[in-house]
Write a structure and sequence with these properties.
60s Ribosomal Protein L30, Chain: A, four-stranded mixed β-sheet, 3 helices
């Protein structure tokens, strides 16, 4: 599949690490709803803390993406919501490993928000994404 996204960098700014400053997409737009670390049996995969939640939530994002005919490189942007920014920072290296296992070296435009709670009370992480499909 052809990549339908080009990433925007500002020449005067330092090169971003782990995300892009902007993305321009072309093709069918897929909006992926908030995905938490829910497993097919309905439980929240949080026994490994935030790293385990990121692992399962990314799997869920990719399942929706692939069901629509997309691949990880079609994701243009992603928002991470977490109830524990400190745990995210403390586990950044492990979360980065999970990311690379699933997404390779594809880093879309991203933002992280600390929130007081998510709709699913037992979840501490939720992902929302936008993809451009060829």
């Amino acid at each position: 599949m052809t990549n339908t996204i080009s990433f925007v960098t500002v020449p005067e700014w330092p090169r971003p690490k782990g995300y892009a400053n902007g993305a321009i997409g072309q093709g069918r737009v897929l909006h992926i709803a908030g995905q938490i670390a829910s497993t097919p049996d309905g439980r929240i995969a949080n026994e490994d803390g935030l790293v385990g939640e990121m692992d399962q939530a990314l799997d869920n994002v990719l399942a929706v993406l692939r069901a629509a005919g997309g691949e990880p490189q079609h994701i243009a942007s992603m928002i991470v919501y977490t109830t524990d920014v400190q745990a995210y920072e403390d586990n950044a290296m492990s979360i980065g490993r999970v990311w690379r296992e699933k997404m390779g070296n594809h880093y879309p435009a991203m933002a992280l928000f600390g929130v007081t709670r998510l709709y699913e009370k037992s979840a501490s992480l939720e992902l929302v994404a936008v993809a451009y499909l060829p």
